[in-house]
Design brief:
Blueprint (H helix, E strand, L loop, with lengths): L2 E3 L10 H5 L5 E3 L4 E3 L9 H5 L5 E3 L9 H11 L3
Antiparallel strand pairs: 1-4, 2-3
């Protein structure tokens, strides 16, 4: 399962997650970052680097943040 970036990332500019991702799975969108689930290798480096605690493994995404699973998948298509 891939990692997912959720709502606390909105308008976040820190980008520590991008810097630590060993496979370049994280991309900047208009107002937040997104993880490409097809590229993500589940290393968790981004999760621990996130200053706003917006990143979860897919199976641990809070109920109220579930829509971000699909949003990350959809946005990843625009980065390829």
């Amino acid at each position: 399962m891939a990692f997912v970036i959720t709502s606390p990332c909105h308008n976040e500019q820190a980008a520590e997650c991008v810097e630590v991702c060993p496979v370049d799975a994280i991309h900047e969108g208009d107002d937040m970052y997104f993880i490409d689930p097809d590229v993500c290798i589940d290393c968790a480096a981004c999760e621990t680097a996130c200053p706003v605690m917006a990143i979860f493994s897919e199976e641990e995404v809070p109920e109220e943040e579930q829509k971000y699973i699909q949003l990350n998948e959809e946005m990843a298509k625009s980065f390829t």
